[in-house]
Amino acid sequence: MDRWFWCDSSLSPGEAVAASAKSIRLYDGDKRTGYEDGHLTLTNHRLLWRHESQSSSLGLPLGLVVLTEEEAGGFTSSPKLVLHLASPPPGHPAGPVATSQASYVRLSFKHGGCSAFQQALQTALEARAWENAAPAQLPNSVKPPGSKKIHAGIIGIERAIQAKQQEANKNISHAFEDLKNLMDLAKDMVSLSRSISNKIKETSVSADDTTQFRSYLLSLGIDDPVTREQHGSATQYHHHLAREVAGALEEPVREAGGVMLLSEVYCRINRARGLELLSPEDMVQACNLMRRLDLPLNLHTFESGVQVVQVTGLDQDKVVKATAKALDGHEVDGMSAGDLARECGVPLLLARERLLQAERCAQAVRDESSEGLRFFPNLFSSRS
């Protein structure tokens, strides 16, 4: 809120109204403020917010707006427009608060119209009409009581700093536009690569080349990740998310021996989704639905609480036998979880769970000493 300043609502020369909205609440970052049910006006120079009970308005120069984002509303929340702001330049007029820890503000649209207002705001930001206005002072600012006249030399320095700040804001805006274009281009590249992959299947290409090309496709990620905005309810969102995770990671899980730690699954799927990152809660809920949806992967929880995603129908007896086979030949020195992890190429946590599971199935015995926990083949069961 330190970027807002008190001003009157009259328009300066060259300033024109672009859009307006009613019943708007102001947030200082994620924190609610007492500024609610106000009228929001967008001009080609600034944003104006005023409540009917107030004689003056709160103004926000558009030159401070770096990036805009829209937050969809929920069952009990209104849609919001997030404005990421640059630091206020020296000599910025006084506002409702002196300093703020948040570098962004949120505008809550109680009666809708958030998307249309964002489009109008984006158009005004691209036009940058305020750069042609007189730079002597921000338009129609209300001077705080007791303000004194400032020396012309200091004003000149402040103008130079403000010009540099505006140039930096312009460069940042162009950088975000380039990032958006890069994201659109990445989606086109994924679609093109999949088209080429389908053509490769129809022609005579070696199996090694096909495998290598598929690995390239996997590194490109998911071109159209599932999002909450695409589905009306959280249940439908988690159903589609479960299918996306199973489809994207079935082959990597099989290559890892049929089992993969849930933490690794979370990292891999977020890497594939790019900027559309998942929360841990959404990831767990989606994996919990895999078994019910009869997907090729499902969530399994060991007795210790460690969770993994494994191939559906994985024979646990085979896993225990493979662990017991790895213990053969280690009757004297035994194996630690680290030894099994290096030999089988699995994460350390998963190797420990495999050894504990083999112990529960009487295929291994343990020895716990000052040197740590080591496991040995169960020679007692083999002799019985």
UniProtKB/TrEMBL annotation:
PROSITE patterns: GLUE. GO terms for biological process: protein transport to vacuole involved in ubiquitin-dependent protein catabolic process via the multivesicular body sorting pathway. Residues 1-137 form the GLUE N-terminal domain. GO terms for molecular function: phosphatidylinositol-3-phosphate binding; ubiquitin binding. Keywords: Cytoplasm, Endosome, Protein transport, Transport. The keyword Cytoplasm applies. It is found in: Cytoplasm; Endosome. Coiled coil: none annotated. Component of the ESCRT-II complex (endosomal sorting complex required for transport II), which is required for multivesicular body (MVB) formation and sorting of endosomal cargo proteins into MVBs. This is Vacuolar protein-sorting-associated protein 36.
